[in-house]
Design a protein that fits this description.
Helix content is 3%, strand content 47%. The protein is mainly beta. It is globular, with a radius of gyration of 20 Å.
Length: 356
């Protein structure tokens, strides 16, 4: 006799939130279901960090100045299991976890991607398992600005921004998508992207529902509208299909700083307008060229992250100085806000992950 029982699910889901004033960073949790009880995580984190949840672990990528990967165990109150350096000044940006003892870390200020063991007992001897050299794909300054990751079976996808540090980090003529074979841990090939500055601060590489194509934000000049778009890319190296525009920033009304895709035709994006207004917009990308359906939230301060929760709600981090916090919208109920005021954390929220 086989008995089945539900474990976890949206009723038990928690958001894991990095809150920071960029001098001090804290990690807190919030229950996804109302009443959204907020709890403090005891262990400290760096003031500039992003969070990822994979398997039964939470990973904090402590970026420039922290320069390490921190592994936390939800079963032990999110206590730190391991915290190992990715190299002084390496500025890690993302982590993709293949298994509890095998992960990949992009190092923004280095030409080498690291293969690591996030559970290593000895950081000096067991953490770094290998490296993958991406220097051949850098621009003239010698650094490729490796950024976001997506792990899909035997393939690891890596975005390279390719910014020219000799010209104040100006975008070069194009960004790149590197494809790595995780069996041999070597570069299989590289796909040139149409756009410049493959910018993804906290969201990783996304997939288009149905087609399986990769979606990569191309910001161009982040302070000028008209030279960027969300790009749709066939991940198959054998494919001759050129990248396409999912939707242009001119249609969205500003530079995209983060986005999520809800369905085969609907998405949400944070856009930065030319007059430095931050907006959360709902958009339709089918049929082309797409259109904005609604402006859901407006702020004069930075909106750093949006994420879809396990229950299908949309969480928005808002760093408004007078009342920072997280707003929750319900796409299943006409994008109605779930709360009358934002969920308030110890510091302004910056990055959001979810535990099922």
């Amino acid at each position: 006799r086989l008995a089945c029982a539900a474990v976890g699910g949206s009723a038990h889901a928690r958001a894991v939130v990095i809150a920071t004033d960029f001098e001090t960073g804290v990690l807190q949790t919030a229950r996804v279901a109302a009443p959204h009880r907020i709890a403090q995580v005891a262990d400290p984190i760096h003031s500039d960090a992003v969070v990822r949840a994979a398997g039964d672990r939470v990973y904090v990528v402590n970026r420039l100045g922290g320069d390490n990967l921190q592994t936390l165990d939800p079963a032990r109150g999110l206590r730190t299991v391991q915290e190992c350096s990715t190299g002084i000044g390496s500025n890690p940006h993302d982590v993709a976890v293949q298994g509890r003892n095998h992960a990949y870390v992009t190092r923004y200020d280095s030409e080498r991607l690291w293969i690591v063991d996030p559970e290593a007992r000895d950081c000096e001897r067991g953490f770094r398992r290998g490296t993958i050299d991406l220097a051949a794909h850098a621009d003239a300054d010698g650094l490729p600005e490796m950024d976001q990751l997506l792990l899909d079976g035997e393939h690891l996808y890596v975005t390279l921004q390719r910014l020219d540090r000799n010209r104040n980090f100006a975008p070069t003529d194009h960004s790149l998508l590197v494809v790595i074979d995780t069996r041999t841990e070597t570069v299989l090939g590289v796909k040139p992207l149409q756009g410049r500055n493959a910018f993804g601060d906290a969201s990783g590489i996304q997939r288009e529902p149905g087609s399986g194509r990769l979606l990569i934000n191309q910001a161009g000049n982040i302070y000028r509208t008209g030279d960027g778009w969300i790009e749709r890319v066939d991940p198959d190296l054998a494919s001759d299909a050129p990248p396409e525009h999912l939707i242009d920033e001119t249609v969205l009304g500003g530079n995209v700083t983060d986005f999520v895709i809800l369905s085969a035709s609907i998405g949400y994006a944070i856009v930065l307008t030319d007059d430095l207004q931050n907006r959360l917009v709902k958009f339709e990308f089918q049929p082309p060229p797409g259109r904005v359906l609604a402006i859901l939230h407006v702020s004069q301060q930075y909106l750093p992250d949006i994420a879809l929760a396990p229950d299908g709600t949309l969480w928005l981090a808002d760093r408004t100085r007078t009342d920072p916090g997280i707003w929750i919208f319900d796409p299943a109920d006409g994008d109605r806000p779930r709360t009358r005021s934002p969920l308030r954390f110890a510091l302004p929220p910056f990055a959001i992950g979810f535990l099922p």
